[in-house]
Design goal:
10-stranded mixed beta sheet, binds S-adenosylmethionine, alpha+beta, single chain, Rossmann fold
Length: 394
């Protein structure tokens, strides 16, 4: 331990207090894990995006590093360059408050074996190892460099959990069965492979996001013939699962806003995160994962919100309404009118009384079928989210 880190225990207690104050830390076992786990060992470096879009790096020993590491905040810990030369985030240390909210929700008990998807820094694996013992914790990441760093850090605290470089959608069959699976990256679909590695009655906690911002954390129970459960009432977002350890390419580009094509008007705000539940439910109406972006950025902000799907469908919606009418221009091209589909999903959600996440649940079956339901699994109201091209089919 260096002179700069001698005070970390007090900072870890402060972090536990901060997490408890937001209601995410309830049990003494998890509080003990936060207080005993040195986050600074797992985050020797973090990056912050500057207003000009570039990144600045803070390294252990820099002024403020230790204090920042023990704040209840996410920290970007790995960047990589895309083919276009842009720097993108490939790993981060999740906001501790969110991590603890998930760990509390996961309802682990002594003796449970837990698989984590997305090792990242190793901090969450360290919390799990403190709670359950390292021989009951398993964690995979697609990125070998991250796995090796995490293994070395975990080894500083004692015998490390089992770590592996692997595609998380496949789980870790050689070490199954597990009682719990927790994913700390988002997936477009829940892989049935996980069900095969879970004990009957076991739980999966995963951020299901078929498209950017479209989805939420869902807690599923393993039944013989299905995974089933409810979305968590509070929204959260993780970075998306990658297929390789290469940095993701810039999101499939919706390209320029269509200037020709079908024209109409809308009263809806086109920014997906302005209304998250109907944006998620709209995925059932859309022909594939939706790329979203802004075009025509001026001093007053972006002019157009643009949407694109892999089949070549494009929609552009003016961000600002016409001050006189309240309408926004809409342009749509390609095989599917994407914005019309979003509007239909909104209307249906309105007609249902605008249900929140707490009224939505999910059933996943071995054929990869994903059905979102309202209130009860066997009720009449549902949305078919099945996508056969999604990572979950692998
Ligand atoms: C938010 S970080 C995980 C944070 C981590 N649990 C921690 O405590 O630091 C998400 C991680 O998911 C990993 N990931 C992305 N695609 C993956 C895949 N296909 N399989 C396994 N891990 C993946 C990323 O490399 C990244 O490290």
């Amino acid at each position: 331990m260096t002179a700069t880190t001698t005070g970390w225990r007090e900072l870890a207690r402060r972090l536990a207090d901060e997490i408890a104050a937001e209601g995410a830390l309830r049990s003494p076992d998890w509080r003990a894990a936060v207080e005993a786990t040195p986050r600074h060992v797992f985050v020797p470096v973090f990056h912050r995006q500057r207003p000009d879009g570039g990144w600045s790096t803070t390294t252990c020993g820099d002024e403020g590093w230790l204090d920042e590491v023990y704040r209840n905040q996410p920290l970007v810990t790995a960047l990589a360059r895309t083919h276009d030369g842009d720097q993108v985030t490939v790993s981060s240390s999740t906001k501790p408050g969110l991590m603890l909210r998930m760990l509390e929700t996961l309802d682990v008990h002594d003796g449970h074996r837990v698989l984590e998807i997305g090792t990242g820094t190793g901090y969450n694996a360290a919390l799990l190892a403190h709670r359950l013992g390292p021989d009951r914790v398993f964690s995979v990441d697609i990125d070998e460099t991250l796995v090796e760093s995490a293994r070395a850090r975990l080894a500083q605290l004692g015998p490390p959990p089992t770590l592996a470089t692997a595609h998380g959608a496949r789980g870790l069959p050689g070490h199954a069965p597990f009682d719990r699976i927790i994913a700390t990256c988002s997936l477009p679909a829940v892989p049935w492979a996980w069900a095969g590695q879970l004990r009957e009655g076991g739980l999966v906690l995963v951020d299901l996001k078929p498209s950017t911002h479209a989805g939420n954390l869902v807690l599923l129970t393993r039944h013989t013939d299905r995974l089933e459960g409810r979305f968590l009432p509070r929204w959260a977002a993780f970075m998306a699962i990658r297929d390789t350890d290469n940095p993701p390419d810039a999101a499939l580009s919706p390209a320029a806003a269509p200037v020709a094509g079908h024209r109409s008007a809308t009263r809806l705000d086109p920014t997906p995160w302005s209304c998250l539940v109907p944006w998620f439910l709209a995925q059932a109406e859309l022909p594939g994962p939706v790329a979203f972006g802004h075009r025509g950025i001026t001093g007053e902000g972006p002019q157009w919100a643009v949407f694109g799907t892999p089949d070549g469908s494009r929609a552009a919606v003016r961000v600002q309404p016409d001050p006189a009418t309240g309408d926004r221009d809409v342009r749509q091209t390609g095989p599917v009118r994407l914005w019309d589909a979003v509007e239909r999903a909104h209307r249906r959600w309105d007609d249902l009384g605008r249900p929140g996440w707490d009224r939505l649940g999910l059933t996943v079956t071995p054929d990869g079928h994903h059905r979102v339901w309202l209130d009860t699994p066997d009720g009449a109201t549902g949305w078919d989210l099945t996508r056969h091209d999604a990572a979950g089919d692998r």
